Amino acid sequence: GDKGAHLADVILPGATYTEKDATFVNTEGRPQTTRRAVTPPGNAREDWLIVRALSEVAGTTLPYDSLADVRTRLAMVAPHLTRYDRIEPANFFGVGASLAKANKAAVSTTPLESTQKELKDFYLTDAITRSSLTMAKCVEATQNPISDSA
Predict the structure, then answer these.
(1) Given phi > 0 = left and psi -120 to 50 = alpha, else beta, which region is 141?
(2) What three-state secondary structure class fits 45?
(3) Residue 44: CA count within 13 A, CB half-sphere
(4) 65 vs 103, which has greater pLDDT?
(5) I want to staple 43 with a disulfide (CB 3.0 to 4.6 A). Which of 13, 53, 66, 126 is the partner?
(6) Helices assigned H by DSSP within 1-146
(7) b/e map of 23-56 (b: 16 or more CB within 10 Å)?
(8) How large is the average pLDDT for residues 86-103?
(9) Could you read off the pLDDT of 18-74 as tens digits, one per residue?
(10) CA dihedral sign of residues 36, 66, 15, 83
């Protein structure tokens, strides 16, 4: 658990990214697939299996019996998420300008400025990775690299 987990009404037993075959979009906007490295502990399951099981309980069973079925549907509704390792062009400025025009608002020409220039320990930004002994070892290894010249 993590800070605030005690406030949750429901905690779903989702496997971490190292424990499942999955599709992720990285910070560049590049869809990527991952392969399971380790078996999920206890009752942890892949996300699609949890959603599928919840759909059964809710009385409207989703028509996915395998990860391949989920990815086939993903290709139908969001094909850009199946063009792995490619950055899709984005039109954020065009969308922002059209929304501003629709709302009769002026578009600022002032660049956005962030006070946080660096995200320390990026790989420890969520409850799952902060609880992971493996990730703690990985972060420690990056902070204390072994020199090749030693």
Answers:
(1) alpha
(2) strand
(3) 13
(4) 65
(5) 13
(6) 47-57, 67-77, 92-102, 127-130, 133-143
(7) beeeeeeebeeeeeeeebeeebbbebbeebeeee
(8) 80
(9) 999 999 888 778 899 889 999 999 999 999 999 999 999 999 999 999 999 999 999
(10) positive
Here the tokens at position 119 are: 């995200």
Q: What is the DSSP letter of 123?
A: G
- Give the Cα separation of 14 and 84 in Å (integer): 23
CA–CA distance, 96 with 113 (Å, rounded to integer): 17
User: Do the Cβ atoms of 20 and 47 come closer than 8 Å?
Assistant: yes
Report residue 134: phi and psi, to 5°.
-60, -45
SS3 (DSSP) at 117: coil
- Type and span of the H or E element at 25: strand 22-25
CA distance 43 to 15: 9
Q: How far apart are CA 145 and CA 65, in angstroms?
A: 44
Strand partners, 32: 24
